[in-house]
Each structure stands twice: as C-alpha cells, then as structure tokens.
C-alpha cells in the first residue's frame, strides 16, 4: 500500500451520525489490537482497520517529522515532559517507526522493543543498528 492510498482513505471521514440503535459490533484495530465499536475505527483496506487513537498518533508522527514537539510515546503513554525528566543526558530521542502503513511515535525504550520484532523491515538499516543493534 502506498502512503497516498492511506491518506486518501483517512481523509474521508467514516464517522456516522449517532445511531438510535446502539451498535455493539466491535472491531479490532490491526495496529494496537484493541477492540472498538465499529464507528470508532477506520477501514484502510479490507484487511486493515485502524482506530482513532492509532490514526491520531499517525498524524502526530507526521507533525513531529515536520518539526512539532512530540507529545510523548504512544506505546508506554509517557508524556514528553516525563520522558525528558527520566532520560539522562541532554538529548531525548524519539523515533517515528512505520508499522504496516501507518506511523508510530515511540520513545527509545519502546522503539528498541519493537524494532527487533521487525527485522524484515529494519535489519541492515542504520536505524536498526542504532536502536536495536540488529
Ligand atoms: Zn489502534
Ligand atoms: Zn515508550
């Protein structure tokens, strides 16, 4: 899937008006594996569903790449303030890591956990070597 295709699908709002009959069907987000009511997720393709949380972070990761300050880590939920406070030294590194077509913004610890699971993507890259020694 090309990035253009993803952007096209996420820019078309799929939010539906409030329904009188509660929709209890739940759908699993393919990215964070959490379950949400059907109207809270977006369908990227037949096989891919993404929740608002993951999509929100995807856009935030793009803002971060564009120079915006990071909010924090989407995986461990630490805020940027906390990450700065607990990280020794001057620099706090944040990583924008692609995951099946969307972007994630991760702290160094979470990136180091995720990267080795995806040697298919990162092995042999400078990124993989730097973050996870693969
Ligand atoms: Zn999700
Ligand atoms: Zn983290």
Low-confidence stretches: 1-15
Helix content: 25-40%
Distance between the termini: 26 Å
Average pLDDT, all residues: 82
Encode the helix/strand succession as letters.
HEEEEHHEEHHH
Give a count of the beta strands, DSSP E runs of length 2 or more: 6
Overall shape: it is: globular
Bound molecules: zinc ion
Main sheet, how many strands, which sense, barrel? 2 strands, antiparallel
How many H/I helices? Answer: 6
The domain tally reads 1
Class from secondary-structure proportions: alpha+beta
* Portion in strands: 15-25%
Major sheet: order of its strands? 1-2
Question: Measured on Cα atoms, how large is the radius of gyration?
Answer: 17 Å
């Amino acid at each position: 899937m090309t990035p253009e295709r993803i952007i096209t699908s996420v820019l078309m709002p799929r939010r539906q008006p409030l329904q009188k009959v509660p929709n209890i069907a739940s759908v699993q987000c393919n990215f964070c594996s959490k379950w949400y009511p059907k109207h809270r997720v977006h369908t990227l393709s037949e096989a891919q569903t993404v929740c608002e949380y993951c999509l929100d972070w995807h856009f935030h990761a793009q803002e971060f790449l564009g120079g915006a300050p990071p909010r924090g880590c989407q995986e461990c939920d630490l805020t940027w303030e906390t990450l700065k406070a607990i990280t020794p030294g001057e620099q706090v590194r944040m990583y924008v890591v692609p995951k099946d077509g969307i972007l994630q913004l991760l702290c160094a610890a979470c990136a180091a956990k995720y990267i080795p699971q995806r040697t298919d993507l990162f092995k042999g890259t400078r990124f993989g070597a730097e973050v996870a020694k693969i």
